Amino acid sequence: MTPKDNLKTRAAIDRTWWKEAVIYQIYPKSFNDTDGDGIGDLRGIEQRVDYLDDLGVDAVWLCPVYESPQADNGYDISDYRSINDAYGDMDDWRQFLSALHERDIRLIMDLVVNHTSDEHEWFQRSRRRDGKFDDYYIWRDGTNDGDDPPNNWESVFGGPAWTYDEVRGQWYLHLFDEKQPDLNWRNPDVRESVYEMMNWWLEQGIDGFRMDVINLISKTEGLPDGNEDGGLTGAEHFFNGPNIHDYLCEMRDEVLSDESLLTVGETPGVGVDDARTYVGSDGDGLSMVFQFEHITFDHDEHKWDAGDWSLVEFKAIIAKWQNGLADEGWNSLYLNNHDQPRMVSRFGDDGTYREESAKLLGTLTHTLQGTPFIYQGEELGMTNASFASPDELRDVEAVNFVEEALKRGDAASYDDVRDAVEYVGRDNARTPMQWSDAPESGFTDGEPWIGCNSNYETVNVEHARADENSVWHYYQDLIKLRHDRDVLVYGAFDLFLPNHPAIFAYTRTLGDERGLVVLNFGTDPVEFVVPDSIALDELELALANTDVPKVPRPSFELGPYEARVYLTP
């Protein structure tokens, strides 16, 4: 059955707030600093809540602000019920939550439960074999008389996924940094502790969770060696593991039975069929997942091999997910976040056509079926940064990549891998939010924990809000348009010209409502011929990133990175 065969009408819409919402992601360390220590804080976010309200967003996804030694910028949690001093305290958090709720903006907290920090009390007691905590993590004896790791699994951040602990005299598993030991989800006491913590946060008044690498919590029994022929060794034993759906169904029953909660599962390695088991009506109960296919399709063996990408392949992936979850499930819509480079530098043009391509990419994510996620600064058209020296890097993944490339002899110097770091490195997303052309982009009165992008003097909030034609104002119009038109939320998706190398065109259909979106992903003008199946007299221009006629013509030329949205009046 195609989407056309199963069109929803207005009367049949199953309305859900998070389907109609636009969500803004905040990376607190880089958002707004109020105490001059160079690190963003909760008071700084509260100070900017009116900014979020003016933009028109419906919810905030807040990256971790919990107590943490910051080995992975907060994704290594040492106390789930405490706020890191750098960000403030629980009173600051509650004031921030109140400020959001007063403006009808919901709050989604980051849930990191595949692993904790090695400084968490659970791990400290586990390494001492203290009572029930003995089995809270994944401990094993080594091979070759204990001198080598228990198996050949690799860490996502590079190197072995095992570290030997002198205190316990065993190896522990860490799929990420060595300071991020994996929890043992086979232990029911671990699951009970996690559910108790989740319920505690819900009692504080939050509106849902974004679940970090949630599909990695189940590992194959016996932890066998992984396939070494390309890719991440061992991935087949911890991506979408054997008990993952049992654990998530149990989590749903114990914590997430309230269907008004938004639950977004970060699920690397899932395909469309996998996603249905997580989000479908008969699935695990998640609202949606973050899938990675559309942002990793040009990777070779690993992310650092990313290169030229094809719009034809990109469109095919988007269409597959749009149609694959049309009847069962729901899409998340994003092109960048705290773990990805800036989308303008990745999929657009961060030079001559920065603003045009930023608007075009925003048009794409706000006119597909699914829930759009805006990453802080995206609404300004922020770009990738320059890192002239490895000393300027802060991301543990990038630092490890550079060190290993030098150690293996794959690179003679940092300059040999600099292009890769500056193209896909996570630090690109973590440079401070660009509020003004004041020193350090108005982010802090001190020295920022990571350097500001050098273009902040021209790309910033103050300039953008003063310019009616800016990316910021275009995003404001996009959000309003999506709020006003159900067809852009619930309408069926149909792709046109799948093999065109520059044009991305599709319709959205809901009952008698129709939308046509036409995008030119290139610097050369191209002609678009409106398909015969589209009645031109039923459409008029709703939004464009250039000045164009109100009524569509049978054919028209699209300029560089031009975007047009036509809707039924």
Automatic annotation (TrEMBL):
Keywords: Glycoprotein, Glycosidase, Hydrolase. This is Glycosyl hydrolase family 13 catalytic domain-containing protein. Belongs to the glycosyl hydrolase 13 family. GO terms for biological process: oligosaccharide catabolic process. InterPro entries: GH, GH13_cat_dom, Glyco_hydro_b, Malt_amylase-like_C, O16G_dom_2. GO terms for molecular function: alpha-amylase activity. Residues 25-430 form the Glycosyl hydrolase family 13 catalytic domain. Coiled coil: none annotated. It comes from the Archaea. Pfam families: Alpha-amylase, Malt_amylase_C.
